[in-house]
Amino acid sequence: MTVKVKFLPDNVIAEAQVGEPILEVASRAGVFIPTGCLMGSCHACEVEIGTDEGQEDVICACISAVPSGKKELTINVYSDPVW
Description:
The protein is mainly β. It has a single domain (about 1-75), classed as Roll (Ubiquitin-like (UB roll)), CATH 3.10.20. It is about 10% helix and about 35% strand. It is built from 1 helix and 5 strands, in the order ββαβββ. A 5-stranded mixed β-sheet has the order 2-1-5-3-4, covered by helices on one side. It starts with a strand and ends in a 6-residue tail after the last strand.
């Protein structure tokens, strides 16, 4: 199943497959998500992902994949000034 992924704040849109790693989708779309450990421990790759309830959850992009059950997914990439 194909999912339309929208990366904010630049409104970059990419097509992705369910289960595809978010970092791979971002890279293919030319969106840079900072990384550190690539295991979810350092939280350098934190992004906000929109929920069905209209809220946002914070996830580590390095250990997350495109979820099933959605036709569209919004990911807010923000910079942590500490990194």
